[in-house]
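Protocol step 4 of 5: obtain the predicted structure for the target chain.
Materials: sequence only (see below). No template structures provided, no constraints applied. The aim of this step is simply to have a reference model before the mutagenesis design in step 5. Sequence pasted as it appears in the construct record:
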Amino acid sequence: MLTTGFKTFAGWAIALAIGAVVFGYTTGGDSVGPVSMGWKGGVGNHVGYAILLGGAAICAVLAGVLVAFRDADADAAASYLHVADVPVGQRPTQPSYWPVIGAFGAAMVLVGLVASEILFVAGVVVVALTAIEWTMTAWADAATGDPETNKALRDRVMGPIEIPVLGFGAIAVFVLAFSRIFISVSAEAAVWVAIGIAAVIFGVAILFALRPNISRNVVVAACLLGGVGVLAAGVVAGAVGERDFEHEEEHGAEEEHGDEGAEEGAEEGTEGDGGGADAEAEVTE
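Step 4 output (structure tokens):
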């Protein structure tokens, strides 16, 4: 029997997939490109098509998860966790940082619409990941009446997915932000900026190592503040723009031109020396 959650997200997945196909054809897609996801023909506007199709894929995954766990049914959870009985559900009691991260992703989307397409895509990715994580956290918190059981259930479902995906996404976003910072300042200043950032990270790591009993909330808050600071600096640096780069090809062309001029001057000097020698020979005769 199909659960209510499965029907809801499966319906959204089908609607978004149809919307992606229609959007692809109305924005210039040809042949069967929008239907075959670009394998045979074009898909029209790539950004809109990818967003709609990505939303359909996310909803399809959520539908599969919900039908597999029977919408957090107590008996299904007990069978999955290999326990005899699972306590009744309760209201969520654990703090969640996903609303803050989602708001930050929405800000990235808005700024990216004006400043950079890369920042816009990164914001869309952050919002999509936040939607998935927030949904699964809310589902697990209300699954049973035992917080430890809820945490174990969520970790077993999302751990193999979120660790590599979130790690890769965080690295990509931070690399993008740092690259914007480095190319917006001079070459000498970029070295000092890199040294300063490394020193701050190293100092914070030493502080956490010396205080092993520090609260987990403090660690999370420090990481969030650091991430917000780096991304804000990246946005500002992207708005400032890149510094002027001197291309090696231009220098090479100038050097070749200078060498050719030197060779021509040397040839003219040789000819002049030859003419002077002839004149001296005539005077001697």
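Step 4 remarks: Confidence is low (pLDDT under 50) at residues 279-283. Residues 55 and 140 are 22 Å apart (CA to CA).
Proceed to step 5.
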